[in-house]
Amino acid sequence: MCEDKKTDSRSQQECQKELEELRERLKDLENEIKKKEEEVREYTSHLQRLQADFDNYKKQMEKQELEIIKNANERLILKLLDVYEDLERAIENQDSSMDGLEVIYRKFRDTLTKEGLSEIPAEGEKFDPFLHEAVMVEDHDGYEDGIIIEELSRGYRLNDRIIKHSIVKVCKKS
Known about the structure:
Blueprint: H1 12-70, H2 74-92, H3 99-114, E1 117-120, E2 132-138, E3 148-153, E4 155-158, E5 161-164, E6 166-171
Subunit structure: Homodimer.
Subcellular location: Cytoplasm
Keywords: Chaperone, Cytoplasm, Stress response
């Protein structure tokens, strides 16, 4: 190297050349460091995106799991709805000696309600194809067009999800 000019036998030109080579090498190394730093930033960014994607995936899976648990009883409740409605009709047509049947009906209704079951309002409401299924239409003076005249079969929600649409008769003006 050209550290000591007196003891060094190389010429000034050789020292300049060596210095230029070292500067060039330093520049190459600095460029390589910049490239590696950029790679590190890219890998870090990619890793952060993967982590965010994984966190979102976990949240989605937890949400789906809760939804599955929440609606796990849907099939059973659908089967029980016919019994529930039959009990209701029996109570409507009973005489006063059938108080026990009414107690059973209320207990059954309360159990279904606690499990997340709710009735869909129909009669007098505006027809909504997401909630109701129209099987009949009729021109009726007492109702506006598109209003439900009669509920033929009740509809139900289970935890905000429609599990049975109301079967209805709708007013349709001619």
